[in-house]
Amino acid sequence: MKILIIRHGDPDYVNDSLTEKGWREAEYLSERLAKLSIRDFYVSPLGRAKDTADPTLKKLGRTAAEREWLREFAPRIKRPDKDGDSICWDWLPQDWTGEERFYRYDEWWQPSAMSEADIRTEHAWVTNGLDGLLAEYGYVRDGHIYRVEQGNNDTIALFCHYGSGCVLVGHLIGVSPMVLWHGLCAAPSSVTTVVTEERRKGIASFRVSSYGDISHLYAHEEPPAFAARFTEKWENDERHD
């Protein structure tokens, strides 16, 4: 089984839609996805994810099933260096890297900033949603692997967001989302491909075959959007926070 985890195009957060560039990205993405044999499409309830899926669905004459748990990962936390609430996946490296529990799949939610926001409950809701979906395709979660009750070569596409996408990938491969949130960058409209491996009959695990692929943008000489990244060098005129 193959899962395509797709981040929405360059976002217009104010209107929960896409920028002009984001719409171009969604169109180029649709040209790519329309060539694939995708059994089912699923989409976040948020507008920017729906808008990203729209060109693909129209090209194929298909619809996508909306899943609430595909929305952007919602909890807000008290970031150590800021007043007020912040998204939980944007910490300064000098703050989060000093807490060893953040690196551990079964402990990353324990530090006070996370536990006070009840991150674990939200994480369980999202990952249970994913596992429930996979069970419909014959893969049943059993610890850190999946029992294969009905193996298949199907492909499904999930249109979602950066934060939630890392939660999904982390759950499938057994990695703390904190490591993925801060160590990987999935540009807008990028495609992450996760595939089952069934090396022994009836036992499957998931493996990432590509992360944050934006080849559909390069094919049209469209530069990737800077969203999800920060400045490469302090003096550069790029986003610092």
What's the gist of this structure?
The protein is built from eight helices and twelve strands. With 241 residues, the chain is of the alpha/beta class.
Itemize the secondary structure elements and their pairings.
Layout: E1 2-7, E2 11-12, E3 17-18, H1 20-33, E4 40-43, H2 47-60, E5 65-66, E6 76-77, E7 86-87, H3 93-96, H4 112-115, H5 119-136, E8 139-142, E9 145-148, E10 155-160, H6 162-173, H7 177-183, E11 191-200, E12 203-213, H8 215-218
Parallel strand pairs: 1-10, 4-5, 4-10
Antiparallel strand pairs: 1-11, 2-3, 6-7, 8-9, 9-12, 11-12
Give a structural overview.
This protein is of the alpha/beta class and 241 residues long. It has helices spanning 20-33, 47-60, 93-96, 112-115, 119-136, 162-173, 177-183, 215-218; strands at 2-7, 11-12, 17-18, 40-43, 65-66, 76-77, 86-87, 139-142, 145-148, 155-160, 191-200, 203-213. It has an eight-stranded mixed sheet. Strand 2 and strand 3 form a beta hairpin. Helix 1 (20-33) packs across helix 2 (47-60) and helix 5 (119-136) crosses helix 6. The longest helix is centred in the middle third of the chain and has 18 residues, at 119-136. It is globular.
